Amino acid sequence: MTVKTETNFYKNVKKLLENGDDKFIVTRIESYATPGFPDCIIYHNDLGFFTIELKVVQRSKRGIGKVLISPLQAAWHLLHVMHGAPVYILVYDPGNKVVNLFGGDKLPKLRKLHFLANSPSPSPGQNDKNQVGGQPHSGPSSICSASNFS
After folding, report:
1. Mean pLDDT, consecutive 10-residue segments, the chain of 150 residues?
2. Which terminus has fewer CB within 10 Å in the chain: N or C?
3. 5-57+71-105+136-149 belongs to which CATH class?
4. pTM for this one?
5. Residue 95 contacts by C-beta under 8 Å, 6 or more apart in sequence?
6. Cβ contacts of residue 77 below 8 Å, gap of 6+?
7. 90 Cβ contact partners less than 8 Å away, ≥ 6 residues apart
């Protein structure tokens, strides 16, 4: 049986967060009752609860990468962002060995972006041509390092 890349990504995130200096509790959620619910709910004593949707960039034969987000995932994130809930999308680009954290409010733009080979995957909103360029999100992305996902 083959293990999916997203499953390995989750295992690495969980290990890094639960074994790091700051202790987090990471729980994976597989919900068929609530379609679109994020992959993980995470708790930290100082930060409280927040959710993270894990995504792995999928590349075409030409090297153009996309993040696949379902309409139900988009709806869930946008509803919670509108109410001020802390929701995030953690994107791993195995081709570039880059991990970036995006706020849930970036999800509509993230769905349309292309991740270019041999280029870091920065935050949406800095390039209007549907190609990712610039610097990564500087928020809570310090929870993991891309070098731990290779």
Report:
1. 77 92 90 87 93 91 86 92 94 88 87 72 40 38 45
2. N
3. alpha beta
4. 0.77
5. 57, 59, 63, 65, 115, 117, 118
6. 36, 38, 53, 87, 89, 104, 107
7. 13, 52, 53, 54, 55, 99, 100, 101, 102, 144
